[in-house]
Design brief:
Elements: H1 5-16, H2 19-31, E1 35-39, E2 56-62, H3 66-74, E3 84-87, E4 101-107, H4 116-126, E5 127-138, H5 143-159, H6 169-175, E6 179-184, E7 194-200
Parallel strand pairs: 1-2, 1-4, 2-3, 4-5
Antiparallel strand pairs: 5-7, 6-7
Helix pairs in contact: 4-6
């Protein structure tokens, strides 16, 4: 079975190390979602507690890793009945028709997808014109910090189930046709800059 059994088992503990700051960023991404919502790479469901369910008509949450998805499924019991549907699917092949969603949510996902450009194109495809992707991501550094990211990537990638430290997600989304409105450029630690943004599919 494809997936990361051990990493899934420890993911919530690892994510918890982000502390209050990461919770604030999850609240921005998920808490601002409304209408029919898509979350790509929902993992173990770490964002679920941060949605404002009074503003969400429904949530379709995708995750390609069956071990992550199994843990996310356990958290459905504490959510509004019938509002959340889980899908085992990669971000590069979303099982939804064009222009389905009002809002998409992605937190620390574009760093792990196999084909970021295709994932960005898929999210844009399933968003309605004028819809927003609410994004939290760590991105490529500059100068010596970028060189350090490249140096540690082989070991870091193995430890973190394929996460890539140095992806330029901002350029990837812009190339896919999104209009980016950067909200913040936080730091996720030494040599790990972040990006918090609203990425809009242009109105028709």
């Amino acid at each position: 079975m494809k997936g990361h059994l051990v990493y899934a088992a420890f993911y919530d503990l690892i994510a918890g190390l982000g502390g209050r700051r990461l919770r604030e960023l999850r609240r921005f991404a998920a808490g601002g979602a409304s209408g029919r919502v898509l979350e790509i790479g929902c993992g173990t469901g770490a964002n679920f507690p941060f949605y404002d369910w009074s503003q969400v008509d429904s949530l379709d949450a995708t995750e390609p890793d069956p071990f992550m998805l199994k843990r996310a499924r356990r958290k459905l019991a504490g959510l509004p009945e019938g509002k959340v549907t889980l899908h085992e699917a990669p971000a590069e092949a979303l099982p939804f028709p064009d222009e389905t969603f009002d809002t998409a949510v992605s937190t620390l996902v574009f760093c792990t997808v196999d084909q970021p450009a295709l994932a960005a194109a898929e999210v844009k495809r399933v968003l309605k014109p004028g819809g927003y992707l609410r994004l939290v991501e760590h991105v490529r550094a500059t100068g010596r910090s970028a060189a350090f990211q490249d140096f540690v990537q082989p070991v870091y990638g193995w430890f973190s189930a394929g996460c890539v430290l140095g992806r330029n997600t901002e350029l990837t989304l812009a190339a896919a046709g999104f209009r980016l409105r950067v909200q913040e450029r936080p730091s996720f630690g030494p040599f790990v800059p972040g990006l918090v943004a609203l990425a809009q599919r242009p109105p028709a």
